[in-house]
Each structure stands twice: as structure tokens, then as C-alpha cells.
Amino acid sequence: MQRYFIDSKQIDYPYIKIIDNDYHHIKTVMRMKKGDKVYACSNNTSYLCVIDDITDTDVVLLIQTELNEQTELPVEVTICQGLVRKEKMEETVDYITELGAYAYMPVIMERSIVKVNNDKRERKNERLQKIAKEAAEQSHRKQVLKVHDIYKWKDMLEESKNYDLCLFAYENADKDALYKDLITKDGIHSILVVIGPEGGISLKEVESLLSYNFIPITLGKRILRTQVAPLYVMSTIGFMLEQ
Amino acid sequence: MQRYFIDSKQIDYPYIKIIDNDYHHIKTVMRMKKGDKVYACSNNTSYLCVIDDITDTDVVLLIQTELNEQTELPVEVTICQGLVRKEKMEETVDYITELGAYAYMPVIMERSIVKVNNDKRERKNERLQKIAKEAAEQSHRKQVLKVHDIYKWKDMLEESKNYDLCLFAYENADKDALYKDLITKDGIHSILVVIGPEGGISLKEVESLLSYNFIPITLGKRILRTQVAPLYVMSTIGFMLEQ
Fold it and tell me: How far is A4 from chain B (nearest CA, A)?
């Protein structure tokens, strides 16, 4: 069944008003009719709704029941990736949303070959948010991944102080780094994981990460590309916490 | 450093002869010179080599040392995916190679929307093998993923008898299926994992899988698309066996 993420302002209990793109999607793309059912999600709650009315400007849903599914990970995982090409960012956002990530934070790193274009920056962020919203709907999540604006390296390091656990993927990490013990430790509610761009993390960056208490982890014995590493991280964190 | 997969016939100790595409890659794409170093991999062994000569038809490598890296998973994992569009197959082959899969087996399933085109079949398989080879080189593997020809459902079921453990991803599986205990059990050397196409696995298929002793597993609490599910499976199996 279709899912739509709504703002809590759209709820006027027991009705929900669907507008803009989602209105268009229900009416024109899905060609739904009065009586059809959809899910509406807001603030970690899903509502099973029936279409009550379709007007020229909005769709009115009638809430039938509130659902108590748990599809969110018990910790908030933010993937911080060295700035990469637009297509790779989009793919990463799409996949990590499906795998349960909380946020995506692109950061300018020494070996990022992509340059920041301030003109396109806002539009790029909007597009990433749209991809995250659609992936969240498709994978039955209750929250949409948050896409941060592009961070400078130093700002990211300062920001890292707000996380309970900070990790970075590093092929030269001690193979015995106890990834599992770190993730499942009591009191860990937010995790930040830094993943380098195509060219990897520079030695200078490794040093600064270590000085900010980031812990290096390995992602298995093969070399993973920058678009595959976040998928390994999200799959294995999900696995540790859910299975 | 560049890696090239070679046939054992190319080795004439202490020399290795590089021909065809790899010759072209070394000479024209990478523009390497005599004295440059590369890895050559054959039968699970990596050789660190120095370029001894570049002729008009081949590159001659001189083996300097045999390396004893272990980049292969200790069990052979075959991902069997319901037939999907070419682009999705290519992406899956690319990513699961990097994550350590042993083989990829496309199978015709009830809800596969793609039809088999016998004319293009061989060319498609060749292209998948090429993608697997490049991904293996890039991720420092010693083996190239084996790409099977397209299986019929019944043939796949019969073939499954040759595996130590057969699993299938199923969102309605008992959430307590002990995925971890299954994978890490003693005596498991080969694992077959069936993943449905976009439309999922039909009830009839679930019944036939169960009758062939396949065990259903869940892949976390979110719904994963057919191209993301194999990445979760390979990441988590790798994690269980390597970390």
C-alpha cells in the first residue's frame, strides 16, 4: 500500500489533508478513488487511512487506525561521506535510507575531486531530500533521512562532539577493532560514521579524526568503494541491533 | 596498485605473460613502463610483479614475490536473484563481487517482469563476467565471481541440493529465524541465498522452497528492494565470518 510522509500540521483529527506533490501522486499517478486505502506517516507514527474525498486542490483522508510498527533502528546513525559526484550521493542517500540511516552529511575532504558549486547547492540538497522521502516511503520507514548541507572538515569535527560514538572506515585499522562491542554498548544513541571519497582518507585527516576521538574500523577484508562502504556499515549496524 | 586476473597458463615461472585486454589496459590506458609494479592473481594466489618488457603483443611480468593475503570469505556464497532488468543485474554483480560473493545465479521467477531473450543471453552473460572481473580487481579479491547462465526455477531447486545451506529472504519470515546461528554453524562451506525479483516471492514459490529445505530469513525491519537485499546479505555474512 502507498505511504505518504506528511507534516503534523496536515492532521486535523480524524482527518488528514494531502496537498501538493502527494495530492498529484494520489490523484493523477496512482489514480486512486474514494474508498482506497493509504498510509500517512508523521512523527514516527503511521496511520492507516481511507480516502474520504478528492477535490480540485487536495485529498482528504479519514484515519482508520494508528499503527504501532517499529521500522526504525534503535540508534540514530549518520553517514558522513567525503564529497563525491552527484550520482553517487544520490545512490548513497537512496540506499542508506532503505537500510535505516538517520542522516546523511556530505563533507569536503582533501581527496574530494568534486568542487562545491554554491549556485546548485540548494537545488542539489532539495533533490537529495526528495530521493530520501521516496526511499523512506518505499521501505516502510516512519522517518525521512535528514540530508545535511555540505560541511567543511573542521565544522564536521566540531559537530562530532554531539554524537555518542564516532567511527571512521579505514583499511589500515587494526583488524581487531571491536566494531560490534562499540555499536552495541549501552548508552549509545547516536553514531557518526565517516567514509572517505574515492581517493580515500588522507593521513592528515586520519590524525585529526583520532584527535577528535573517532575510532577506526575495518569493513571486512576487501577494499570497498565509497558508494559500497556506507551500505556495509548500515547493513551490519542494522544486523547487530535488530537480529 | 593495479591487479590483473590471469589464467594459470599465462605463468611461466618466474614470468607472466599479459595479453589481450589487460595488455591494452597496461600499455594504453595506464601507460605503464618497464619497472612499474602490478599484481597478477591466479587460482587464489597474488603475485607482486614488476614489468620486465612491453612488446607489440604482450607485457612480460617478472614475479617478485608471492603474497599471502586472505581476501576471500571462508564460505562460498551464491546469490540467486529472481530475473531483473539488465541494469539491476549488472549493479548487483558489481556490488556483491566487492562484498565477497562466490557466484551469481539469475533465476526465472513467477513475478519476474523481464523476459529471457535467447539471442542476447550469451552477450549479457559475457558482460556480467567482465563487470565481475573488474570489480574483483578493484576490491583486491583473488577470485572472480562466477556468473551462472539463467536458471529455470525447477532446475535451481534441484541444484540447491549441492549446497550446505539454502536460505531465502522473506519479509514474513519468523523474526526469530536464527540467521547468525545458521551461517556460522560448523561444516557450512557453501550457501545459496534466494532473493525475489521486484514483485517479491509468490506463495507457491515459498512452498516449493520450503519443500526443498530452504530456510526463510528476514533482512531487518525495513522492506529492501531486490537490488539492496543482496548487499545486506553479503555485508552481514561477511561481518559474521570476518569480524
Answer: 15
* Amino acid at the residue A69: E
Are A222 and B180 in contact (CB < 8 Å)?
no
Pairwise CB contact (< 8 Å): A222 & B98:
yes
Strand extents, DSSP E, chain A: 3-5, 11-12, 15-18, 37-42, 45-54, 59-67, 76-82, 103-107, 146-147, 165-169, 190-195, 215-217
Average pLDDT over chain A, rounded to an integer = 91
- How many CB atoms within 10 Å of residue A132? 26
Q: Nearest-CA distance from B20 to chain A in Å?
A: 26
CB B14 within 8 A of CB B61: no
Q: Write phi, then psi, for A134 (nearest 5 degrees).
A: -65, -40
> Residue B97 and residue A208: Cα distance in Å, rounded?
33
Please, how many CA atoms are within 13 Å of residue B208, restricted to the half-sphere of its CB? 14
Cα separation, A68 vs A45, in Å, equals 7
B146 in contact with A at a CB cutoff of 8 Å? no
Q: Is residue A173 helix, strand or coil?
A: coil
pTM of the model: 0.82
The predicted-structure confidence for A11-44, as pLDDT tens digits, reads as follows 998 999 999 989 999 999 889 999 999 989 887 7
In chain B, residues 22-61 whose CB comes closer than 8 Å to chain A: none
Bridge partner list, B77: B191
How far is C-alpha A86 from the chain's CA centre? 16
**In this complex, is the C-beta atom of A221 within 8 Å of any C-beta atom belonging to chain B?**
yes
DSSP characters for B130-198?
HHHHHHHHHTT-SSPPEEPPPBPHHHHHHHGGGSSEEEEE-TTS-TT--HHHHHTSTT--EEEEEE--T
Strand order in the sheet with A103-107: A146-147, A103-107, A76-82, A190-195, A165-169, A215-217
Asked if B230 has any chain A CB less than 8 Å from its own CB, the reply is no
Q: What are the pLDDT digits (tens) for B135-192?
A: 998 888 888 999 999 999 999 999 999 999 999 999 877 665 678 888 888 899 999 9
**Positions of E strands within A72-130:** 76-82, 103-107
8 Å CB contact between B104 and B127: no
Q: Cell numbers of A220, please?
A: 571486512
> What residue spans of B5-145 are helical by DSSP H?
20-24, 86-98, 118-138
Measure the CA–CA gap between A125 and A146, rounded to whole angstroms: 10
Nearest CA to A89 out of A110, A103, A104, A108 is that of A104
